[in-house]
Structure formats: structure tokens, C-alpha cells
Write a structure and sequence with these properties.
Bound molecules: zinc ion
Number of strands: 18
Shape: elongated
Distance between the termini: 102 Å
Mean pLDDT: 84
Oligomer: single chain
């Protein structure tokens, strides 16, 4: 498989440098030492080690503005685009571009230090004046020994006794409320469904049964040609879309993305103004491309037929109910029709002695035949109107 090397998102970093005169380490985008004022010398390389990533837009535009210009008179760097030296005022028309190099080594004090007795040489071990994480200046004090104070010790985490307490309680917690609700419900249902006896009088007899009448009729239907049943008479037919099918309409070049990517070094561009652009690279396997068929849904047409066919159709459905013990059933259907009759339900009409209300009760055929009008029976009832059984009075 072929390999491909490609760049990833680049970043801009602010380099550090060391003052040639007093040894102060400072951001190389500053054109002179913040401690002693010595112009930054191109002889001292700018250090990548410990360089800070630049995200501030103003600083980024400064980084991309171009190489600094070195004043031919005083040697101070001026930002790209400057026309006169801000240190000495000399014109910069013929000024050379700054060409300070970059090193991987951390910024170090130069071996020869021209002046150790400058008033603020406490900067000897001053750390860089920036720190992304704290955002605070760390210059001075850090290695000053006596003036350094360790940060206030944080209080210990508070012991969480409550967690233990809760689990202890839940071990022995009894849901009295839930038990109470269930017990009340059980008692109520027992009371409502507990049977008691009531006296009833038979006041009537009824029978009922379900009836379905079917007729053999011509019925209009519509279906695809191959589904039309035999015996059908075609009325009309038409073309219609029955389904869709996938049809290959061409091919498409597929270029799979690179795989198995591994870091493959980085490219460092010196921007010659105290900043550098770092572009990491990765190397990946580049799978070969291939053609893939492209499909499209296309309609499939067929013949749809309107026809008529003879079949059994339900023309009547209902309950036939007759009153009295001796009435005969109604008759149903005409000749050529099918009549389906369901099982007979035997019903007695009862009047409750207590409140004179009337109700139907389905009973067995045997009981229905046994009971007669004005007969007194004992009904086992519950308190929501249900009747469990009917028995003769002894
Ligand atoms: Zn200095
Ligand atoms: Zn100058």
C-alpha cells in the first residue's frame, strides 16, 4: 500500500531568548531586554524549548506580519512595516531583516556576562514572565529562597459521614405507608366482594343468540393481473406503478481516506520576529481507490385489473332476542343465503326483593327450564352488584 505524508493543523509559538548582557530570559518577540535594555542580538538563538502556544489574535497577526527589521544604526529590532527606528529614529529603508536562529535547547545564560552588578540583577534566575496556566507573572521570588512561600495548604476533604448514615437507615427502613395502602386495598376489596344473600323473584324469561346472514353476490374488486382469482369478470384494466427496483446507472470513483496514521515529525518555520510556526506531519497508509456502481430507484409498472367476482358477503349480523318461555325464534335469510347461528344464551329476569330493581341473569339451560314465573330464589351477591349464584329456596 502506498504511503502518504500530510500536514496537520499548524500552531504558532512564542520563542524565548536570553539577554546577551545580563542573562535575563525573556520573550523573543520583545526587541530588547526588559531588565537592562540591551537590544536582542541575532547571535543569541531563540529557544523552542518551553515555547508558549499563541492563540491571542493580536499576537498572531504580529507573528504573521513578517520578519523584524534591524536598525543599521543602533541594532534594535523594529516590527515589519516600520519606517523609522523607534529607538534612535534612523530611517529603516535599507534595514536588514532580522535573521536570528532557532534552537531546541532551553534558553540559557551566556557564558560571558558583561555586567553582573546591574541594580536589578535579581533576574539572574528569573523564570519566563509568562505562564499560560496561571496567567500570573512568575518573575522573581521563585528561586529566591527566603522570599518563597509555599502555597497555603488546602483543607482536607470533608468526611462524608452522611453517605454511610443513609445506607444504614435504608437497611432497616420499613415502608409502613406502602404496607398500609396495600392492607387498606385488600380489606376494601374483601368487603366489597364478600358474598351475602338476597331474596329475588323470577319475573320473566328470555333467550338470545347471535345471527349472521351471508349472500352469494357479485363484488367489485381490483388487483394486479397475476392476482386476479379465477371466475372473475374483467371490467377494465390500467397500467400503474407496482414497485421500484434498483437499476445500476453508472459508476463512482471512491477514494478511501488514509488509514493507520502515525506522527511523522514536524516542520518549524522561523518567522524572524520572535515567533515560529510549527506544522506537525503524519504518515498514513493510502488505500487504493476503486469504482463503485451507482444505483437508482426506478418504477416498475404492471397491469391493474378492475373485475367483479361472486363471493359470500355478510348482509346481516345481529342478536336475535325473544321473550317468554315458549316463543319461537324468528326466521332469517332468503333462499340461496347462508345463516350462521351462535349458541343460545338462557336469561332469567329477576326482581330484587330489597329495592324492587330488575336485572337479567344468564343461567344454564337446565336452570332456565327448572325456574318458573313468580318463583322465589336466593341470590349470592357482592356489594358492587355482582351475582355469584342463584339457588332454590329449600
Ligand atoms: Zn539584559
Ligand atoms: Zn535604531
Amino acid at each position: 500500500m502506498t504511503k502518504v505524508r500530510r500536514p496537520l493543523a499548524s500552531k504558532v509559538v512564542a520563542l524565548q531568548t536570553t539577554c546577551d548582557a545580563c542573562g535575563t530570559i525573556y520573550a523573543a518577540s520583545q526587541v530588547k531586554c526588559p531588565n537592562c535594555g540591551e537590544p536582542h542580538s541575532a547571535k543569541v538563538p531563540m529557544s523552542l524549548s518551553g515555547a508558549r502556544e499563541v492563540t491571542d489574535l493580536v499576537e498572531l497577526s504580529r507573528a504573521y506580519a513578517g520578519a523584524d527589521l534591524v536598525c543599521g544604526s543602533c541594532g534594535v529590532r523594529n516590527h515589519a512595516g516600520s519606517t523609522t527606528c523607534k529607538q534612535c529614529g534612523s530611517p529603516l529603508d535599507d534595514a536588514e531583516q532580522f535573521h536570528g536562529g532557532i534552537t531546541d535547547e532551553p534558553p540559557t545564560k551566556p557564558v560571558h556576562r558583561s555586567n553582573q552588578s546591574r541594580p536589578s540583577s535579581t533576574g539572574e534566575q528569573i523564570q519566563p514572565t509568562f505562564d499560560i496556566r496561571s496567567g500570573a507573572s512568575r518573575s522573581g521570588g521563585v528561586s529566591g529562597g527566603s522570599s518563597y512561600q509555599s502555597p497555603t495548604r488546602l483543607p482536607l476533604p470533608i468526611q462524608r459521614y452522611s453517605a454511610y448514615g443513609t445506607s444504614h437507615i435504608s437497611d432497616t427502613y420499613i415502608p409502613w405507608q406502602a404496607i398500609g395502602i396495600v392492607a387498606t386495598f385488600v380489606l376494601l376489596m374483601t368487603f366489597l366482594l364478600w358474598p351475602h344473600q338476597e331474596t329475588v323473584t323470577v319475573t320473566g324469561f328470555t333467550r338470545e343468540r347471535s345471527v349472521t346472514v351471508q349472500a352469494y353476490q357479485w363484488v367489485p374488486e381490483e388487483d394486479w393481473e397475476d392476482n386476479v382469482p379465477s371466475g372473475a369478470i374483467t371490467i377494465s384494466s390500467r397500467r400503474a406503478q407496482r414497485s421500484t427496483e434498483q437499476v445500476e446507472v453508472g459508476q463512482e470513483w471512491v477514494d478511501p481516506p488514509p488509514i493507520n496514521c502515525k506522527p511523522a515529525g514536524e516542520e518549524i518555520n522561523n518567522l524572524y520576529n520572535g515567533f515560529a510556526k510549527i506544522t506537525p506531519y503524519e504518515e498514513c497508509d493510502d488505500p487504493p481507490g476503486y469504482y463503485e456502481p451507482v444505483y437508482e430507484d426506478q418504477p416498475v409498472y404492471d397491469t391493474k385489473v378492475s373485475y367483479k367476482i361472486q363471493k359470500w358477503v355478510t348482509v346481516q349480523r345481529g342478536t336475535d332476542r325473544i321473550e317468554g318461555k315458549t316463543s319461537s325464534w324468528h326466521s332469517y335469510g332468503a333462499s340461496g343465503q347462508k345463516v350462521d347461528i351462535g349458541a343460545i344464551r338462557y336469561i332469567v329476569v329477576l326482581q330484587m326483593k330489597e329495592d324492587a330493581s330488575v336485572r337479567d341473569k344468564v343461567v344454564s339451560e337446565q336452570d332456565w327450564n327448572l325456574f318458573h314465573e313468580n318463583m322465589t330464589l336466593v341470590a349470592r351477591m357482592n356489594r358492587i352488584g355482582g351475582m355469584y349464584s342463584l339457588t332454590l329456596v329449600e
